[in-house]
Amino acid sequence: MPATRYSVAGDGDERRCTRRQSETHVKTLTILQINDLHGYLAPHPEMFALGDDNDVRSGGGLERIATLFRALRRERAGAVLALDNGDTFHGTMAAVHTRGDAVIAPMRALGLDGMTAHWEFAYCPSPKPVTWGCACARRT
């Protein structure tokens, strides 16, 4: 079996991972990434920095985000990687009051492939194991 090498090349908006064997095949992998959810399950007013200006508009909402994730997965079947970079399970009253448990089911609906943690460790030490990343990541 010949060795397989992968290289990544960027064209500005997309990154392409190329598998090289006897002939070159180009595949596109779409990476979906969220972070700093802070327990907001519904859309909420958020300040967006736009160069030198700021704009307050509606942002977030896990159902809206899940809808976008589903649409992209349908459009790019098998070529989507979904990640959460933390700051997820704290911030709102529901998240803090339940120590993040209220956020698990809605996060699971996103079908994440992986997750890191950030302020999630603020709940430690905990009488129960902190397993949010395992609870939210898609099982394969």
Q: Secondary structure elements and their pairing?
A:
Blueprint: E1 5-10, E2 15-20, E3 24-28, E4 30-34, E5 44-50, E6 53-59, H1 62-75, E7 80-84, H2 93-97, H3 101-108, E8 114-115, H4 132-136
Parallel strand pairs: 4-7, 7-8
Antiparallel strand pairs: 1-2, 2-3, 5-6
Distance between the termini: 27 Å
Estimated share of beta-strand residues = 25-35%
- By DSSP (H or I, 4+ residues per run), the number of helices equals 4
Largest beta-sheet details: 3 strands, antiparallel
CATH topology: Purple Acid Phosphatase, chain A, domain 2
**Roughly what is the average pLDDT, rounded to an integer?**
77
Specify the overall morphology: globular
Integer tally of domains: 1
CATH-assigned homologous superfamily: Metallo-dependent phosphatases
Output the radius of gyration: 18 Å
User: What structural class do helix, strand and pairing data support?
Assistant: alpha/beta
Give the SSE order as H and E letters.
EEEEEEHEHHEH
Strand order of the largest sheet: 1-2-3
Number of DSSP E strands: 8
Contiguous runs where pLDDT drops below 50 for at least 5 residues? 1-7, 9-13
For the record, what CATH class applies? Alpha Beta
Portion of residues in helices? 10-25%
Q: Quickly give the CATH architecture.
A: 4-Layer Sandwich
